[in-house]
Amino acid sequence: MNNPFSLESKTILITGASSGIGKQCAEDCYKLGAKVILLARNEQALKTISKECNGVYYSYDLNNLEGIKALIQQIVLENGPLDGFIHAAGIEKTLPLKNLKPDDYESVYRVNVLSAYEILKHITNKKFRNEHLKIVLIASITSVIGRAGTLAYSSSKGALVSGVKALAVELAPKNITINCVSPGTILTPMMKSFFETLTDEERQKRIQGFPLGLGIPSDISYTCIFLLSNAGRWITGQNFIIDGGYTAL
Ligand SMILES: NC(=O)c1ccc[n+]([C@@H]2O[C@H](COP(=O)([O-])OP(=O)(O)OC[C@H]3O[C@@H](n4cnc5c(N)ncnc54)[C@H](O)[C@@H]3O)[C@@H](O)[C@H]2O)c1
Questions:
Q1: What is the pLDDT of residues 171-214, one digit of tens each?
Q2: What is the best residue among 188, 198, 240 to mutate for testing ligand 1's pocket, by most ligand atoms within 8 Å of CB?
């Protein structure tokens, strides 16, 4: 039987691939047979990870929205058309409403949302993709729950969740699927540095919210693989909340 979860002969672009969830996605997509294209800023980390994954890397700052078209053209010219895309690049900013300035929203939205939409604009062009392109945007449970101090971040993730609904309908006639995966707390470098800002009491409270304990990056990469594989053929416009039971409480 053909393995419906295999990524054999698929070419997958992954942003945020130098660290945490994106790095795990690159490693696991490779193990499932994909050719992986890694994109992030940290060239040294990208070099090491791409070697391990037999992949290629592009060191690029996604704040530069204007350069994305040329970047995608170069990626496809050098690697062929894409079968999958994971947007795992993201930044976090915890500030209460009274301290937030327009620049704070803008910097978070630029990387978390606008860079993804700009990439989508180009990779959905038939010159740059194969017949059944599958897209996964990493959002967050803060797109569906309230947490003080997360307005800039959680509203950016909410924009991804509502955006995939519009795009699922718009892109279905092109045989393109698009979904969000919304992680709970996953122990990655981003989360470890956030945890350092919490008091012991706040940290314990956060951990206790997860009936299955905190997550690990492969809890998210395996969900992405499912959605990028042929098994995900009929799934689009959804937000998969992967949170060890946090939102079940
Ligand atoms: N870790 C968690 O608990 C958690 C929970 C919910 C959602 N998320 C989301 O998962 C995604 C990955 O998070 P992580 O914990 O692995 O974070 P991380 O900090 O370990 O990795 C973030 C990645 O994004 C890349 N990146 C950031 N800004 C960039 C820019 N301007 N240009 C190019 N690349 C850029 C970094 O290079 C890095 O590769 C993020 O979108 C985050 O919001 C994480």
A1: 999 999 999 999 999 999 888 888 888 899 999 998 999 999 99
A2: 188
Sheet containing strand 82-87, edge to edge, reads: 56-59, 35-40, 11-15, 82-87, 129-138, 177-183, 239-242
- ∠ CA 128-79-77 to the nearest 5 degrees? 60
Going by alpha carbons, the residue nearest to atom 38 of ligand 1 is 16
Is 244 in a helix, a strand, or coil?
Answer: coil
What tokens were used for 215?
């997550």
Specify the pTM: 0.98
Best of 21, 25, 187, 239 for a ligand 1 pocket test (most atoms within 8 Å of beta carbon): 21
Q: Which domains can be identified in the chain, with CATH numbers?
A: 11-186+217-241 (3.40.50.720)
Q: Distance, CA 148 to ligand 1 centroid (Å)?
A: 20
Pairing state between β 82-87 and 129-138: parallel
Rounded to the nearest whole angstrom, what is the distance from the C-alpha of residue 220 to the centroid of ligand 1?
A: 13
- In this structure, the strands spanning 177-183 and 239-242 are parallel
